[in-house]
Amino acid sequence: MKYEINEKNVKLLGRTTAYRGVCWCGLSGTGIAFSVKGTYAAVTLMGDDSTNGRVTEGPARIGIYMNGERIMDKVLQKPEETVTIFKGNEKRTAEIVILKLSECAMSTMGIREIETDGKIVPVPEKQRKIEFIGDSITCGFGVDMEDPETVFRTDTEDVTRAYAYKTAMALQADYSMVSYSGYGIYSGYSDTDSRSLEARVPLYYEKCGFSYAKPFGELELTDVIWDFKKFVPQLVVVNLGTNDDSYCRGLKEREDAYSKEYAEFLKVIRKNNPQAKMLCTLGLMGERLCPAMERAVELYRKETGDENADYLFLREQREEDGRVSAYHPTEKSHEKAASALVEKIRIFMGWD
Questions:
Q1: pLDDT tens across 140-196, in order?
Q2: Cβ atoms within 10 Å, residue 186
Q3: How far is CA 8 from CA 4, 118, 332, in A?
Q4: Handedness of CA 229, 231, 234, 235 (dihedral sign)
Q5: 3-state DSSP percent of the chain in helix, strand and coil, to 5
Q6: Fewest 10 Å CB contacts: which of 32, 57, 163, 187?
């Protein structure tokens, strides 16, 4: 029997969108989760136009998990292919998770259908829900490439080895990621002393995503307005400023502008998540802009009277913990950041 990918049959993870009968996953950590009882299960996956080489940094990297263990790790190289998750002579019950491990900007993943001789049902929703908003750190940029001199590739990116995903798992929370490498709030990454206006998360926060690649070679994810009722978090964690700092460079006028833009972005988050608390964090790849982030939170509180916003300075990654691609954090550094974040969230949210 073949099952369509919808909320009746599977649990949708993160910001997904249905288009031409396919569930499209763009942002890091998006995907589906379901339980199945049968003798076999297979899934039909779709690649976007990144599979024809138009996007040079690479097609989508995905992971397939069965009962908590990753059983398949692949980069989508074909426009469409069906992969067998398990097959045997006897019925088995399994919990299956299909995740997009790489980020949105370079490529997307489509899931057309699930085929099995058994029945599938969505895995249960978790009581806790967290939205993470960030940049390459949240995406798990280069975490599988131990040489810090290497450049970006989707096949070295793994959101499950990064602090945000680890934090959600430690707190037994459902998550949604909104993260893009090189992006900021006031400016994206800049090595020319020019402000990068296009690479700013607020431009795309209310969209399903942003990608240079197009599902079926035609769908623009930015044309899909995100419905915030689909995922209602109790907490929104923002980790933005590392790329802004490449432009601000310690200059007070620029840092003040960052703080102001940050406070305005918090208002947008609040508009779309009226019941959520907000926690702003920064520092894993540099602590210089942390005081400006603190001022942003204080400015937001002053202008709105909203006290449900706080901040946390993360300790900068240490030399002894190593570096991965483009000097990004290793999994060990991510684990330390997750530990500090979990401790803060437990207190902030009153979670055991």
A1: 999 999 889 988 889 999 999 999 999 999 999 999 999 999 999 999 999 999 999
A2: 30
A3: 9, 16, 38
A4: negative
A5: 30, 30, 40
A6: 57
3-21 burial code (b ≥16 CB/10 A, e <16): bebeeebbbbbbbbbebee
| DSSP annotation of 188 | B
| CA–CA gap between residue 61 and residue 161 (Å, rounded) | 14
Amino acid identity, position 143: V
pTM, two decimal places: 0.97
Nearest CA among 204, 199, 224, 228 for reference residue 214: 224
pLDDT for position 302: 98
Angle at 288 between CA 286 and CA 294, to 5 degrees: 110
Give 316: exposed, middle or buried? Use CB within 10 Å, 0-12, 13-18, 19+: middle
Q: How many Cβ atoms sit within 10 Å of the Cβ of residue 249? A: 12
Angle at the Cα of 39 (from 37 to 42), degrees rounded to 5?
85
Task: Quote the Cα angle for 332-234-270, to 5°.
Answer: 105
Locus of tokens 């263990």: 69
